[in-house]
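In response to reviewer comment 3 from the previous cycle, which asked for concrete evidence that the modeling workflow produces usable outputs, we include below a single protein chain processed end to end. The sequence was submitted unchanged, and the resulting structure tokens are shown without manual editing.
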Amino acid sequence: MNNLNYGVIGNCTTAALVSENGTMEWLCFPFFDSSSVFASLLDKNKGGGFAIFSDDTLSITQNYMRNTNILSTVVKTSSGEYEIVDFMPRYLHDLKSYHCPPDVIRYIRLRSGSPTIRVKYNPQLNYAEGETRTTVKKKYIKSTNRTDGYESVYLYSNCDLEKIASGEPVTLKNNVFFLLSYNQKLSVLNDDYINLEYQKTKAYWMGWVARSRFSVSAYSDQIVRSLLVLKLLAFQQTGALLAAVTTSLPESIKDVRNWDYRYCWIRDASMGISVLARLGHENVSRRYMEFILDVIPFKDEKIQIMYGINGEKKLEEHILEHLDGYEGSKPVRIGNAAYKQKQNDIYGVLLDIIHYSIHTFPSTIDVKEKLWTVVRSLSKTVSYSWRHKDRGIWEYRSVKQHFTFSKLLCWLAMDRSASIAESFDEPHYAAKWRNIRNEIKQDILKYGWNDKIGSFTQYYGSDYLDASNLLMEKYGFISADDPRYILTVQKTDEHLSRNGLTYRYRNDDDFGTPDSTFTLCSFWMISALFKIGQKDEAYRRFENLISYMNHLGLLSEDIDVKTGRLLGNFPQAYSHLGLIDTAVLLYSDQGDQQEQENIYVKRMELAE
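The workflow returned the following structure tokens.
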């Protein structure tokens, strides 16, 4: 079975995917959302890649260096052993700025013997459209493409450049480096330079992880890996948090549900930033709030559900007809037309993170006044838009409904706004918004509940279940011991869960019936089961769910319920924040010692 057995490396400027055999199959330069240099992930023949391999390979082992985003691929051959160390430089350059250039370093460290390697370096710029010309210069190999504007990249190495270009075998006698850059380098490049970049980057990631605060011992490795993924997806220049580093990885093979996720969804990012902040990484949260203040119109309700990572508002969708797609899954899309959609739920998550920030981080009076203006503007919008239909959290493209979850998040928006107003000593606003909050709640209880089904449903008047309603308790709308919530969890599980995995919904959408389960929804279900008292089942399902992680502990958006393979864009911020939230809920070290011993025993039983 094929799977997304890739490692991701990155430096908060851009990222690359490296296969389990050491081939770089996805890279965009100079930023996450730029055109690709390598895209064999989306077309094995045309996309381009960067392979380092041996003809006499015996085994390959791949791991991350502990507590870093540095990838190690160890290759044993009949003539020796070497290690490919893949990373993108990132460290504090001075007290104010970070060194995180659009550079990829592939550092081959000789471990034993005299192994022979081959290099297949095949950049195909501009999403492999048109001709990419690669020529060997005195100090570097330069590749250019003029199809859709001029693009170029530079490859430096202490290895014979002609042999690299021709793919001739090279016998390793010392360490070898490859530095691929969007920019022509001015520094003197040698083994000392590369090793220093490596050591500083390693120290940076280990130091960042050391600042994490969580009291979970059972799954600390998985939590740390998920935190590192979320940090990697936080764009250095603006603080925007990407949904994923890829585009057009399909939700199901040979399907058309292929979207570009290299953007910042307000909902996804706010949830992710909240997790990072709670676990000790407040600076990431502050920078995201700066991004929000830059992109949100203060006194205009036309807030978008998503933005480009530099705050771009137009994300026009285009199809790359010349690419065959991942395992033939077409179309390959760049851009995302969902930016035009109206989704009322985004106000709730945004005001939730603003509420959290105001009550957690000290702010100047200027920042507080800006935030108060945003709060009043958003609350004004919610006060009338909550009654209207929208596209919902799952971004239906041709249908508008009174989605229950959208109403729930409008309730959340007014609840958080009222709390903010009280903290700013504005009782008039607090009372007004609290009244609207109460009105929304009564509306949901009246129209969102279906007596015949015995559950809250996807939209008013429907018989369909939706996993997003599992969040009612999390946001404080209803208690975990409320019979309506318990029934909603049970009915949702009955209708949407298969083999311990949970779908978003099962009714038809614009493209038919969804085939794959949504990883985040599976975590939501585990948390909901735990909260209604089904703890043993929650532990069992958590163990089952993390077993689908790839060999490096990474998760995509979806999991195929029949085969268990990872599908959808990768690695997915939503999925990793779900893992963190659920692990902290289930396995927190807080509580009495006997309870923790019981948890440990249960884990051992489940593992057996």
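Confidence is low (pLDDT under 50) at residues 589-597, 599-608. We consider this sufficient to address the reviewer's concern, and the full set will be provided in the supplementary archive.
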